[in-house]
Amino acid sequence: MSLVLLQVPVWRDNYAYLLAQGTDAVLVDSPEAGPIEAALADRGWTLRAILNTHHHGDHVGSNEDLVAHTGCRVYGPAHDRDRIPGLTHPATVGATVEVIGLSFRVLDVHAHTRGHICYALDTPVDEVWRWGHDGTATRVARLEQRPLLFVGDSLFLGGCGRLFEGDAADLTAVMATYRAESPEALVCCAHEYTGSNFRFAESVSAGVPAVGERRAQLDEERAASGSSVPDTLGRELSTNPFLLAFEDGPRAHYASALGCAPEVTTVLGALREAKDNF
Ligand SMILES: [Zn+2]
Ligand SMILES: [Zn+2]
Predict the structure, then answer these.
(1) Which of 5, 32, 188, 263 could hold 10 in an S-S bridge, CB 3.0 to 4.6 Å?
(2) Do 136 and 150 meet the contact criterion of CB atoms below 8 Å apart?
């Protein structure tokens, strides 16, 4: 049975993800039921479970509608269960979620919110479809046969989520967690923020040419699908300032660009603050 990842554009700039093995599907985050149910019907898939990364409304907003229509399970962070509507299966950090014959590792990536988790799937995916708000569903061969990281709002291409309930030390732990994952993995993040992230990244990365080079390629890359997401963690490691800041050369560059001490947590905090005000 082949394993298929389909990105679904929802709300303004959100992405939900359907992952199907045969005709059984799981959904990662549920901003809006209509487009998700249309995609399920179009593919002939049956929704078995929702995997929620964190409690924000644009990630859990259609849990109850989808449960009412399909009877699916709802997974979410056990330590934040009270904020996940319709939760039936609490997911514990360090444990695995077993559903539709797949095993997802549950990673603690709290910083954007105090309950944020990531679902990591080590099984390589056979088909990957990007589908943006201004484009059509497009299969992207170079992204296939790779493991997956469903990162929600904890990591974006070229950036990271705002620190609503965490601090720079939490953000450092999150980025260290991702740096320990396989660079082959796909970063399946929940918003198309890549353009604005790389405009900011380029503004502080004069000493890191790969960042500007990637920004220059973005329009062309998004042309068919309308989406720049997902992409590989390896590509993020060489172009995302929040991951690059762990390396001595880029960190020294960011510290001098931002006028702060060249210490990882200090630099990450300064980068996040500069992006908030960009
Ligand atoms: Zn969020
Ligand atoms: Zn969000």
Answers:
(1) 32
(2) no
Mean predicted lDDT score pLDDT of the chain? 97
Rounded alpha-carbon distances, angstroms, from residue 235 to 50, 148, 157, 164, 229: 28, 14, 9, 26, 12
Q: Which residues contact 23 (CB under 8 A, 6 or more apart)?
A: 44, 45, 46
* Tens of pLDDT, residues 12-49: 899 999 999 999 999 999 999 999 999 999 999 999 99
Going by pLDDT thresholds of 50, 70 and 90, the confidence category of residue 270 is: very high
Phi, psi of 97 (to 5 degrees): -105, 125
pLDDT score of 207: 85
Give the distance (Å) from ligand 2 centre to CA of residue 54: 9
Q: Which of 106, 119, 169, 172 is nearest to 147 (CA)?
A: 119
* Residue-level pLDDT at 150: 99
Q: Is the peptide bond before 230 cis (omega within 30 degrees of 0)?
A: yes
Q: What strand order describes the sheet that includes 138-139?
A: 89-91, 73-77, 46-51, 24-28, 14-21, 3-10, 127-130, 138-139
How remote is the CA of residue 59 from the centroid of ligand 1, in Å? Answer: 7
CA of 154 to the centre of ligand 2 (A): 9
* Ligand with an atom nearest the CA of residue 162: 1
| Domain range 3-276, its CATH number among 3.60.15.10, 3.40.190.120, 3.30.450.40, 3.30.413.10 | 3.60.15.10
Token pair in block for residue 249: 């050369």
pLDDT of 94 strictly over 90: yes
